[in-house]
Amino acid sequence: MLHADRKAISGFLLAWKPFIRISENDYAPDIIANAIKEVIKESEKEERVPDPKNWSENSKQFLKNIGLKSLKELHAITTKYWW
């Protein structure tokens, strides 16, 4: 899972699109390189994004974007995500 980060109006970072999932079967160098380039391109934009109006909904949307249902699932040892 790769995603961009964008700075909110208040100054903190938010996970931002694109959210790119790479399956274990797709670990080809060109697929990973293209995903990294896409994420960096979006992360480098200096335009700030709106602050979340509802943090609970923002968290739910983040989990949906990365294909998970709960924070418990995100923090599980069996979940293959890196910080």
Description:
This protein has 83 residues and is of the alpha+beta class. The chain has one domain (2-75). Helices cover 37% and strands 17% of the residues. It has three helices and two strands, in the order ββααα. The protein has helices at residues 29-43, 55-65, 71-75; strands at residues 2-7, 13-20. The chain has a two-stranded antiparallel ribbon with strand order 1-2. It starts with a strand and ends in an 8-residue tail after the last helix. The mean pLDDT is 90.
Shape: flat
Low-confidence stretches: none
Strand content: 15-25%
Write the H/E string, N to C. Answer: EEHHH
Report the major sheet: 2 strands, antiparallel
Q: End-to-end distance, in Å?
A: 10 Å
Short description:
The chain has helices at 29-43, 55-65, 71-75; strands at 2-7, 13-20.
Highlighted features:
83 residues, two-stranded antiparallel sheet, 3 helices, 37% helix, 17% strand, alpha+beta
Task: Describe the secondary structure blueprint for this structure.
Layout: E1 2-7, E2 13-20, H1 29-43, H2 55-65, H3 71-75
Antiparallel strand pairs: 1-2
